[in-house]
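In this section we walk through a basic example: taking a raw amino acid sequence and producing a predicted 3D structure, encoded as discrete structure tokens. The instruction is simple. Fold the sequence below.
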Amino acid sequence: MTRPYRHRARTTGATLVRVDEDRYGGDVLSGDWRSRGVKKVRQVPLERDMVLEDPASGWAGAVVGLEAGNVSLEDWKGRTRAFPFEGQFLLEGELVTLGRPQAPVGRSAAAAAARGGPAGPVGSVHADWRPGAAPAVRQASDGGRLRTASGSFAVEQQRARVALPSRIMVEGKHDAELVEKVWGADLRVEGVVVEELSGVDNLADVLDDFRPSRDRRVGVLVDHLVPGSKESRFADAVMRGKWGAHVLVVGHPFVDVWQSVKPARVGLQAWPTIPRSIEWKQGICQALGWPHAEQADIARAWQRILGQVRTFADLEPQLLGRVEELIDFVTEPVA
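The resulting token sequence is shown next.
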């Protein structure tokens, strides 16, 4: 609402106020008076796997279908509830309304994305949790150049380069799969190979075998790289050692790379806190009500989490910056 302009001039013992319009002369009910002071709710197009919360019930989950005027949300336990499409939802804490989807949602859409084919009709079915369900290259929202999942401009019609002698090394399989999903297109263009260490404890031996040099650099991504941790001690020893001039060790503060996925992607406000006496991944699965008795259960849980990662926007900044730093390090031209 436009308020009257008031000019205050200091005088000796008095304040002069000039009102340039009559606040009370018009009809107070004229115009759109009901909407004054009411915040306008933004409308966003509905997308498959978008995580929404129904503010009335508190139910939160990923979009898995749209049918008969209802949008289906699946929570982290695999349960599904339908809500009126015309209602209001919370998207990352912001109240929004939903616009018609620009692409189909549901299993047929997920399967089509995985194989690179056209999507079928919209259906109220479970989403595909497989990591390949997200396309590696996406059209820019403004219709401009294509971008990869990392946000880089896609290099079209270019074959992958022959692998560089330099390497990026990560602690384990889950780290490698996440890097591949978000940065895979970029790494193939650059010719960068990602290798698994099977634990940071093996880093010194792996480097001795690899023998880094000026044109054979190694970038290492480490989990839980915080002061005083085991990982920080290994990293410091390597950087001070004989290969330190040609090795860069960086890391994120999370206990495991699972935590680098934004919790909202799996319907959470925050990742559960797990006691140190419990193996972290098993504790996470237990807290979420997922099977966790066998290693196969842990593997399926990770695929479910990884399946919710579409682009770099679904990852925490603490990981994004470190991976980009490693790519720059191993691809820097030799002077």
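Looking at the output, two observations stand out. The first strand starts at residue 6 and ends at 10. The chain is about 25% helix and 20% strand. In the next section we compare this with other chains.
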